[in-house]
Every structure is written in C-alpha cells, then in structure tokens.
Amino acid sequence: MRHATLLSFCLPALCATPPAPPVEILAMHLKRLSALAGLPDRIACRDVDMAMALKREGIGIDPRSPVAWAATAAQARAFRAEGRFVVCADPALLPEGAALVLRLQGGQLRMDLHRAHAVASGLPLSDTLLKGVRLL
C-alpha cells in the first residue's frame, strides 16, 4: 500500500512535460531566426505574451512574415496552411504543423526541427540554423 501511495505522487511528476522556456529567451531566439531567414526583426505572432516579449526585443509583429510563432494547435495549423515556418515551444504542436520547437532540456535551450514542415514552408534553411538542431 505504501508503494502505491508513493507511486501516485511520483508518477505525475515523471510524466509531466518539461516547462517551456521563458518568453524572453524565446523572443531572443526568434530574433536570431528571423535574421537567419533574411527578414530581420519581423515575426508573425497572434499570442499576446509573445508579442509583448518580441516588441521588447525590438521585433515588429508582421502578419506577412514567413516566420510565425504559434502558442496553440489552432495557430500552428493556421500558420502552416498559410505556408509559414512555424516556431513553437510545445513539442505536441509538431504534428499540427510546427517546423521548429524551442524547448528546455537540462536547463539548456534545444531545438527540434520537423524536416517536412520546414521544407514545405519554403524558407531556406542555412547551415547556421541546422547546427545544433535535432532533426525529426
């Protein structure tokens, strides 16, 4: 009985998804991504928190930008349908159309790239971007 109680407390912690990086760190990396895409300081974004963080980084919100930030599955699907390179912080959005996931692992920012979604966006992928990215 003791083990069952202990397991009921530990199991949710083991199964929990890792926390998303703070929006300030994500905004800084989105600024670098927009520059690598040849569109410095322009990102499509419909998330209020991220839009504010992007503005603090000096990035303008441009609905025509080919690089887009998605916070929800609906946003990821919509941006993908528009042919954009979709960036998010939730790995669960990869099947929904996200091309790049920025996530924390062991306290460091990691990037996962969905190759098919990235290629479908038409955005050229530079060697600088691909360095240190885990391809899926």
Please provide a brief summary of the model:
By secondary structure, this protein is an alpha/beta fold. The chain has helices at 2-15, 23-36, 48-56, 73-81, 115-121, 127-130; strands at residues 42-45, 60-61, 67-69, 85-88, 100-105, 108-113, 133-135.
Fold and architecture overview:
The protein is α/β, with parallel strands linked by helices. Helix content is 42%, strand content 21%. It contains six helices and seven strands. Helix 3 links the parallel strand 1 and strand 2. The longest helix is centred in the first third of the chain and has 14 residues. About 5% of the residues have low confidence.
Which descriptors would you attach to this protein?
about 140 residues; alpha/beta; about 20% strand
Topology:
Elements: H1 2-15, H2 23-36, E1 42-45, H3 48-56, E2 60-61, E3 67-69, H4 73-81, E4 85-88, E5 100-105, E6 108-113, H5 115-121, H6 127-130, E7 133-135
Parallel strand pairs: 1-2, 1-3, 3-4, 4-5, 6-7
Antiparallel strand pairs: 5-6
Helix pairs in contact: 2-3
Number of strands: 7
Coarse structural class: alpha/beta
Radius of gyration equals: 16 Å
- N/C terminus separation: 42 Å
Rough outline: globular
Low-confidence stretches: 9-15
Helical content class:
40-55%
Strand content: 15-25%
Order of helices and strands: HHEHEEHEEEHHE
Count of helices?
6
Strand arrangement within the widest β-sheet reads 2-1-3-4-5-6-7
Main sheet attributes: strand count, strand direction, barrel closure: 7 strands, mixed
Mean pLDDT, to the nearest integer, reads: 80
